[in-house]
Amino acid sequence: MAEAGHYPYQAPVDAYGNGGFRFADMSHRGSILCLPTGMHAWSVNTSSEITLESLQPVLDLADQIDVLFIGLGHDIVAFPREWRAQFRERNVIVEAIATGPAVRTYNVLLGEQRRVAAALIAVERAR
Q1: Residues of the chain under the 50 pLDDT cut
Q2: What is the domain class of 6-120 according to CATH?
Q3: Beta-sheet pairing, 116-120 with 15-17
Q4: Alpha-carbon distance 127 to 123, whole Å?
Q5: Which residues, at least 6 apart from 17, have a Cβ–Cβ distance to it below 8 Å?
Q6: Where is coiled-coil annotated (predicted)?
Q7: What is the DSSP letter of 114?
C-alpha cells in the first residue's frame, strides 16, 4: 500500500486470502479498513481484537457511510449491542459476517456507488 499503510482511494477488493488482500493492482498483507478516505491498514488480526477504538476511523467518517461490513475472518461472533448502538446513533447499519461474504457484498454495494465501508480481517484461505 502507498504511504504508511494507506491507499488514498476507496477501491473494490479483487482478491483475499494468503493473509491479505489485493486491490487497485496492489497487494496488502494483513487486515484492512475500506473507507471513503481510502484503503487503510488495520491492526486487527482476530475477531476478539476488534474494539470500538479499532473501529474509531469508521465512526469518524460515519456521516459518509450508510453500511459497514465487518469481515470477522472465518469466525461468526456476536457484535456487542452497545457497539451497534454507537453506529446506529450515527445512522450506520453494521453487518458482522465472515470475511468472504463481507468482501463480496462490499464490492457489490461499492459498484452500485453506495455509501459503504468495510473492516476486513485477513484470512489464510479464501472460502
Answers
A1: 1-3
A2: alpha beta
A3: unpaired
A4: 9
A5: 123, 124, 125, 126
A6: none
A7: -
